[in-house]
Specification:
The structure is a homodimer of 120-residue chains. Chain A is mainly alpha-helical and 120 residues long. The first copy, chain A, contains 6 helices and 2 strands, in the order H-H-H-H-E-E-H-H. Helices cover 62% and strands 8% of the residues of chain A. Chain A has a two-stranded antiparallel ribbon.
Chain lengths: 120, 120
DNA sequence: AGCACATAGATGCAGATGCATCAATATTGA
DNA sequence: TCAATATTGATGCATCTGCATCTATGTGCT
């Protein structure tokens, strides 16, 4: 459902959102794929291919890693940041419509509080 | 888990089991793909491809349908029946180990009764 | 009959999943 | 130091999912 909303808006799938968000959090130094994999809870090969696709779309880039020549550092590009930003309202609208929209006002508040407790 | 047990035994995936079973039930006249799709709860294209693969493996065959030239009738081959038969003990063992094995004897009986109520 | 529309099924494409395995580099221990 | 081993990440292969679209045939209406 989020997927179809994103598709309709000509935006990439949800998994990209998560990845891009983590990459933004990681900052300009980038992040090692293994670490990203742990955050996203993906199998290694899945992340490798996700990075392929996102890189092909110009949303991320792989930098060579000075401390370990086997690996690299990944980071978002400006385009990646832009795309994630455009994804957010679509995502948020679906969440709002489908989740919050089905709750009583009191429940909504309770949910907001609960979510607020979840660490970034 | 059932999947890996089947793979270890060099047998096809679970979806094939269901399909082969329905085909056996349908008998020698075969069954129309649409009808099979309803029984298996698969999207049309998924069934089409499943039939491709099973046919390639020699487990099913498509017969031309006299009453509607757009479609055909599908049925199992002897090899299909044989394969399904060899899949069953593997499947059953996993079910037994993982499900029944975690229940008290009384619960097992209750489960068996419940399952018995589910129409074929 | 003839044309619009519906239905059966296949297929191209992109992505994802899972497995196995590879190449390159790191680390460890004798 | 050097060989065995471990780790990082990529990749080949098959399957599977979902979407869109195609072909061929069937059906209904005029």
């Amino acid at each position: 459902m989020v997927e179809s909303a994103l598709r309709d808006a000509d935006l990439p799938p949800l998994a990209w959102y998560d990845a891009l968000l983590e990459l933004e959090r990681a900052g300009d130094d980038g992040i090692r794929p293994l670490e990203l994999r742990d955050k996203l809870l993906l199998p290694q090969y899945a992340l490798s291919r996700l990075l392929d696709r996102m890189e092909k779309a110009g949303l991320t880039e792989r930098l060579s890693c000075p401390s370990d020549k086997r690996g690299h550092l990944v980071r978002t590009t400006g385009r990646g940041r832009d795309t994630r930003t455009r994804m957010w309202p679509v995502y948020a609208k679906v969440l709002n419509d489908r989740i919050a929209g089905n709750l009583e006002p009191g429940d909504r508040l309770a949910l907001a509080k609960l979510l607020g407790k979840i660490p970034e």
